[in-house]
Design a protein that fits this description.
The structure holds two protein chains of two kinds. Chain A is mainly alpha-helical. Chain A is built from 13 helices and no strands. Chain B has a domain of 78 residues. In chain B, strand 11 and strand 12 form a beta hairpin. The longest helix of chain B has 16 residues. Classes of the chains: A mainly alpha, B alpha/beta.
Amino acid sequence: MKVLDPYLIQVFMSAVLASVICSIIGVFIVLRGLSFVGAGSAHASLAGASLALFLGLVNQPLATILLAMAFAISMALFTAYLSDRGVKMDVAVGVVFALYMALAVIIIGMIREYSSTVWGYVFGDILGVSSIELMALSVTAIAVMLIIGLFFDAFKFITFDPEGAEACGLPYKTLNYVMLVLIAVVTSVSLKCIGAILVFTLIVTPALSAHQFTHKMENMVILSVIAAVFSSITGLVISFVFNISASASIVLVSSTVCMASIALSPKRKLCKECLEIKIFER
Amino acid sequence: MMKYAVEFDKVTVAYEDRIALLDVSFKIPCNKFTCILGPNGAGKTTLLKTVLGLVEPVTGSVKVFGKEVATHKSEIRKLIGYVPQKDVMDLSIPVTVKDVVSMGLYGRYSLMLISRRKIMEKVSKALKIVGLSNLLETPFSHLSGGQQQRVLIARALVKSPRMLILDEPFSGIDVASRDVIIKVLKEFVDKGGTVIMSTHDINPVLDYADYIMLLNKSVITFGPKEEVMNEESLSRLYGLKTRFISLNGRKYVFIGDESA
């Protein structure tokens, strides 16, 4: 296989783009404790993608992505609706997650053909990513970077102090809905690359790794992207060398990086500066 | 000149089936230091949130600087610096002191429309007021409770508000920080601002507050400190014996202490 093989470049580009968008959005998911939303969203996407296959749209990746996205967005909005009405976020996700998973199970059970394609959406099939799916990843990456870049300060504020942000005049509910929709979009376009079960790891682990080394949210985003891109490229190379599942390999590397980061985190050592401040305070 | 900063007219607030405030009416004058005193669960935080429009009343009307909160929410929020209870914030969020203070500017200005230099000027000025200029780049989570509270006050001051609203600013902080906060609030009032503060411990501000409200779901009494602060009113508020004593020229309140 040539190193500059266009197919190989497409595979690596898909992995890098999926890891970039997952790791950026992952920062807000980890800090706001929305990990369960990411998992629910991925499974709702699976229901949407399965429906596309059931309807015979197997050769129409754009239609599949849009259906997956529609299911994931509806799941996110339904969750936010329940949360706005006083249901705790984790409970709301639990209810909606189960609902969409049940739908996915029923639809997958009804699909007679293309069972390997379905498994591609469950566990990821990065080697089977089409140029249209790569295009969708690219457009999503641009949109995510633009939205997060423009509203980074606002998202930072609602993450740190939602009540203070609302009292300052920030549209907390709107920003919250935007974030949930972004999570839904990111998980649905990454579905083919990483799979419904594993995409959740690529969202959470790079952000968690980054959190171990910085006290600034801007740096956390940068470190999260670096960890995710490193994991996806290393994971792909390992999968080619040992002929194992690419998405599983990426997730294994990402999880290892995360565990190493937690073990080596300077935040877990006694902070001399903190101690000095506290002694001074007394 | 505006006479009242906040006006409540027969306001009732409820969370689902639980009443938090019942038929509350009062008028808080401008340019005064007002303290809201009451036991836990008395509705102090709810009252402050109602002023900000974060909680909507079931009945009654709320006006801030003469404008209905229900219809002028965003306009009113630009005029108020709010210091929420410190413990609602997640200290694991990676933000620095500079980040936290500049957050106060978001509502008043679109941050994209003002230069970084201008933001830094305003942030530095606010931090100077609370005496923490040297901690600009320090992670917020590395600060002591008292320093964190001062940073949150700097965040409220950074947009040059007409009114400061503080929810239990003295809980879990050291005496030195408490004294700095009282001094900052007093100076804010001296310069023409209005301060409304909830507290369950009146002693630290007994010398500085102009008006006192005793609240327990409904207003028990509200007025100038000299008229309101008496043993009878406080006993009604807490359902316990209260006594005033003077020590080194300062007055102190003891609540529920038979031996006082």
